Amino acid sequence: MAADHLSEVFDLVEVRSVLSGGMSVRGPWESSGVVETRLKFFAMVSGRARLTTDGVDGPVDLEPGDVAVLNNRSWLRVEGGTGDGPRRVVVPDADFAVTRLDGPEDVMIGGRVELNPIGEELLLQALPPLGHVRAAARSGVNLRGSIHRLFDEVAANRVGSAFAIRQHCQLLLLEVLRAHVDQTELPPGWLQVLTDERVRPALGLMHADPAKSWGLEELARAAAMSRTTFAERFRAAAGVPPLAYLNRWRMLLAQRALRDRDVRVGSLAVELGYASESAFSTAFKREVGESPLRYRNRARDTSAAPRRDGVRSPTARRHGGA
Fold first, then answer.
1. What is the pTM of this model?
2. Region labeled Disordered — which residues (predicted)?
3. Which residues contact 161 (CB under 8 A, 6 or more apart)?
4. pLDDT tier at 264, thresholds 50, 70, 90
5. What distance in Å separates the CA atoms of residue 249 and residue 209, rounded to the nearest whole number?
6. In sequence order, what are the beta bridge partners of 108?
7. Distance in angstroms (rounded) separating the CA atoms of residues 201 and 223
């Protein structure tokens, strides 16, 4: 099996998606609110809807199986339904009581994506302000199935459903990213370089042994390219040269170790290939902006802080939902 660098980074940044609400509506409707979480997703289970948010050119039309991802947006408006009469104002969660999909309802579920500070830096940089992943595209074949499996758990409320919902949310997010990679021209960054088959062998070397002092010649040979071609290809995909990527990868590993382990800074320096604790601390502060010990204290304090639900109505009544 080929090295799965995307899964490796998923573990590193602790990407976790959490279902936070849903709505099931018949007839004309609309819903709006203030977005309070940095990364939010909406999945259209059945029916159709139009989503508008700040900072983008126009609305997105969602069809069954489609997913919209909001990246660092401040507000949203969703509307749908057909027929005569005034539009009903929908409050997510309060308007979610469907148990099966056998009518003309518009059914939508929404959630937030929880990330540690490393994940926020990496994933938010890789995604557009409003991402639209289409289930109708060839790369979205598995997307609709993931959405329906998640919906079935939400609607059935069986024993163990809370655990199952968490797992299905995680898999849904993975399918969204897979489809996004196939359907979108990615900007230079970690998501593009991790999915570049040409540089995969060189990435494998750096990820497997980050402490080694890798040279450009050795990495280019692993990728079956000349030094110049490899350097240009890698920089175009990652946005930084190969050795700068290696240094950043070391810093990501260091941040996880400082956050999750009680390792001494000196031992961590040796583990990551630095000649001394001071050399490691200097590199860490240059990359992260603070010393290793200060980062450890702040990261652990942040992880203990409560999280917000993600969306609230303009009147400040929190409903956390789609």
1. 0.75
2. 295-322
3. 153, 154
4. very high
5. 11
6. 23, 44
7. 5
Helix (H) or strand (E) holding 130: strand 130-133
Count how many domains the chain has. Answer: 2
d(C-alpha 179, C-alpha 143), whole Å: 8
279 close to 86: Cβ distance less than 8 angstroms: no
Q: How far is CA 301 from CA 117, 168, 212, 226, in A?
A: 12, 29, 32, 46
Helix (H) or strand (E) holding 52: strand 49-53
269 and 145 within one domain: no
Amino acid at 111: G
CB 113 within 8 A of CB 15: yes
CA 2 from centre of chain? 22
Taking only the tens place, the pLDDT of each residue in 134-178 is: 988 877 778 888 898 888 888 887 898 889 988 888 888 888 888
| Average of per-residue pLDDT across 214-219 | 95
250 vs 118: CA distance, rounded Å: 12
